[in-house]
Amino acid sequence: MADQQRYFILLSYDGTKYHGWQTQPNAVAVQEVLDKALSTVLREPIETLGCGRTDTGVHAKDFFAHFDLSDGSSMPDHGTFLRSINSILPHDIAIKNIVPVHADAHARFDATLRSYQYQIHFNKDPFKHGYSWLLRDVPDMKLMNEAARIIMEYTDFSCFSKSNTQTKTNNCKISRAEWVQVGDGIVFHISADRFLRNMVRAIVGTLIMVGRKEIEPEAVRGIIESKSRSNAGASVPACGLYLTEVKYSPPNPLKGEQ
Q1: At a CB cut-off of 8 Å and minimum separation 6, what does 221 contact?
Q2: Of these residues, 3, 14, 35, 55, which one is catalytic?
Q3: pLDDT tens-digit readout, 71-125
Q4: Is 55 a catalytic residue?
Q5: Does any domain span residue 235?
Q6: How far apart are CA 158 and CA 4, in angstroms?
Q7: 0.90 exceeded by the pTM?
Q8: Least CB-packed of 11, 35, 53, 147 within 10 Å?
Q9: How many structural domains compose the chain?
């Protein structure tokens, strides 16, 4: 087998028109569009592997993927590559950086922390439609943050996961879960070593129940300990969810970390 050079790419995308990151039959995904563009520019079949999955309609401000280029293949210089790939990608996907990495660097398995934001606004705004969730009534952020702190005490989040996901474990280590006031809206920040499918949107839906005083903050304990998705809140719309940061060990070379 010929030697290969592995590359990491940093991209962002508007997930509105896509059925998530991962290529799938009978639906257009970000990965499929990206692989086709890379194959065109680099003139050989390219298959990327992403740092994780995002659900249908979810956005990514920072998303990492890696791919291998056959030894002897010609990689354009940095600026030429970025101009070329971005000129053929649709407007809702952008490559921000690319670097060569060692052969066993892995966009998914080397990631040590992932961060998401969920955006909510309270006044109708045509420029936020599709990128934030419009709520008519302002929930109690103090109560929601109290419940968020309770969530951080746990590691098994089966109650917030889609069923039949074939994951080996539903354990995640959450290092941040916090609501912050931003302008005329609020933003939920959450960071963890890993996330389950639909987990953030289910957590937000449950916290909104607390904020609307439909349940007490302490009721979240029973929901988590039940390990039953049916006991948690409904999943909130995908439009407000963004993958905002992925950290690596060793440090991510794409952002010049030392």
Answers
A1: 150
A2: 55
A3: 777 889 999 999 999 999 999 999 999 999 999 999 999 999 999 999 999 999 9
A4: yes
A5: yes
A6: 39
A7: yes
A8: 53
A9: 2
